[in-house]
């Protein structure tokens, strides 16, 4: 059964019910005067130029936000720059200390032996790697094996040099 059929079976509306309810009336709280009208000469009304949408900064809020972001970026850049300058000074001091230590120990047999070992090992590895490369036998497996050999040599040299520098040939400061 449809709604129209169900409504037709029920009681009929009176003339009073068929009319729409009256609209609520607005009661004015202010006296009607021209003081509530907007004056177009006041600074609250702004006009914009025709190129407004193509401007990079369109509002005061946007300009303020961009200025704040620029200040923050400048502050971060200053922090990074200061940190880099400090790190550079520390690295330079460490390098000067290492050079002074090397100059002070240039006649130490352990330092001389290590320098000779590094040069000999580098030359031997370079020549051997070139021969393997030229023969087409240089693979990652061969390179890894020799890297392991170099690692063992470095570890042995470190402990032997530490022992000799502490007990037999102390380093000068």
TrEMBL record:
Gene Ontology cellular component annotations, sorted alphabetically: mitochondrial outer membrane
Region (Disordered): 1-62
Keyword Membrane assigned: yes
Record bears the keyword Methyltransferase: no
Protein name: Uncharacterized protein
Leader sequence residues: none
Transmembrane segments: 110-130, 142-165
Biological process (GO), any one: protein targeting to mitochondrion
Organism: Oidiodendron maius (strain Zn)
């Amino acid at each position: 059964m449809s709604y129209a059929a169900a409504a037709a079976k029920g009681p009929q509306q009176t003339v009073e019910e068929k009319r729409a309810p009256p609209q609520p009336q607005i009661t004015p709280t202010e006296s009607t005067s021209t003081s509530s009208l907007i004056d177009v000469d006041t600074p609250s009304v702004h006009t914009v130029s025709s190129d407004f949408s193509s401007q990079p900064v369109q509002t005061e809020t946007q300009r303020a936000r961009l200025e704040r972001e620029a200040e923050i970026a400048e502050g971060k850049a200053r922090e990074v720059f200061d940190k880099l300058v400090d790190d550079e000074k520390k690295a330079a001091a460490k390098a000067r200390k290492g050079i002074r230590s090397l100059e002070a120990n240039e006649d130490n047999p352990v330092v001389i032996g290590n320098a000779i070992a590094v040069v000999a090992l580098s030359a031997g590895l370079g020549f051997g790697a070139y021969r393997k490369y030229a023969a087409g036998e240089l693979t990652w497996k061969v390179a890894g094996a020799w890297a392991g050999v170099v690692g063992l040599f470095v570890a042995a040299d470190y402990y032997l040099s530490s022992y000799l520098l502490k007990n037999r040939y102390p380093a000068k400061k």
